[in-house]
Design goal:
The protein has 189 residues and is α+β, with helices and mostly antiparallel strands. It has two domains: 48 residues; 140 residues, Galactose-binding domain-like (Jelly Rolls). Helices cover 21% and strands 45% of the residues. It has two helices and twelve strands. The strands form two sheets. Strands 1, 3, 4, 6, 9, 10 and 12 form a seven-stranded antiparallel sheet that branches. A five-stranded antiparallel sheet has the order 2-5-11-7-8, with no helix packed on it. A hairpin with a 2-residue loop joins β9 and β10. α1 runs antiparallel to α2. The longest helix has 21 residues.
């Protein structure tokens, strides 16, 4: 019996690590535009519309082929944000035409096209935060802000999500739990 308890103890500790974290990890901040612009500013052809493309939900639509393109921005504190995702629903144009920018001291700092999150799903794009702190950030398409020119894009964007930096204690519990499981497996063998 004592041998069994010694073998199972690390597994029980690991399970407790998953079940009772030190404190809950911060939730992502999601902007779905169902309740208005939620602090976002629209420029150029960008406008909040209700669309059947998304099953009657609200989104931001922009025609990047018209002069001035489309730009959406918000003042946001990125101090504890790891990355930002956005869902893009392409109507026409270059699927890499949606880009991210920082506006610092009146200057645009362009990060270029967003990376794919899921290789088989081109609608979910992401940007890793490069400049933490309180600043104006946003997305643009069809606007000539950067050195490279991309083709015009007509698209809807929705569900802009700010993903927080993982808490160190959560990562520590995960590492401790996985280590305890590995130790328990080696002892059983």
């Amino acid at each position: 019996m004592r041998h069994l308890v010694r073998l199972l103890a690390p597994s029980l500790v690991a399970l407790l690590g998953f079940a009772v974290p030190a404190y809950a990890a911060p939730e992502p901040i999601v902007f779905d535009f169902e309740d208005g612009l939620q602090g976002w500013t629209l420029e150029g052809s960008a406008q909040r519309v209700q669309t059947q493309v998304l099953g009657g939900q609200w989104a931001i639509f922009g025609d990047g082929s018209v002069e001035g393109g489309a730009l959406v921005s918000i003042q946001m504190d990125l101090s504890n944000i790891a990355f930002i995702t956005v869902e893009q629903f392409l109507v026409d144009g270059d699927e890499d035409g949606l880009s991210f920018f920082y506006r610092i001291g009146g200057r645009f700092i362009v990060s270029g096209p967003l990376r794919l999150v899921e290789p088989g799903n081109p609608s979910v794009r992401a940007h890793d935060v490069m400049f933490p702190g309180d600043q104006q950030i946003g997305f643009y398409w069809g606007v000539d802000l950067g050195p490279e020119e991309r083709g015009p894009i007509v698209a809807f964007i929705d569900n802009i999500t700010f993903h927080p930096v993982p808490e160190p204690s959560s990562l520590a519990f995960l590492g401790f739990s996985l280590g305890a499981i590995l130790i328990a497996r080696r002892r059983i063998k």
